[in-house]
Amino acid sequence: MKVERGDGKKPLVARWGGVSLAHRRITREVLKDDLPAIWRKRPAELVTRLRVGLCELCHARADVETHHVRRLHDLRAGNQAEQPEWAKLMASRRRKALIVCRDCHDQIHNGHSSRRVSRNVALESDVR
Questions:
Q1: What is the CA radius of gyration of the chain?
Q2: Of 27-36, 40-49, 58-67, 86-95, which range is least confident?
Q3: What SS3 state is found at 103?
Q4: Are 12 and 2 in contact (CB under 8 A)?
Q5: Mean local confidence (pLDDT), 13-34
């Protein structure tokens, strides 16, 4: 659509998506009303680990919870040999969160670390 203006100004031309809005009986333009493809981000690693529903300490299939530390530096405090298994696991993965069952979570907060991590199971492979 074209609107003429006076005083030596250029005419105004209205376009929609590169197609003129002027009325024509026969159009040669093809309008594509397809929506663009929506790229979905992969869920965060923590969400994926939660969805597995497997305790990362004892490998029990139960309702899982997340044990979280404020800083990874907090895991390195003290002697490495005296650290509990859960702290060693978090430090080795460089992750501040650990997915654990209710029993393991209670033991972590009570200062007990009687459960051992099975080294035969590849924990990261369960996530992907």
A1: 30
A2: 27-36
A3: helix
A4: yes
A5: 67
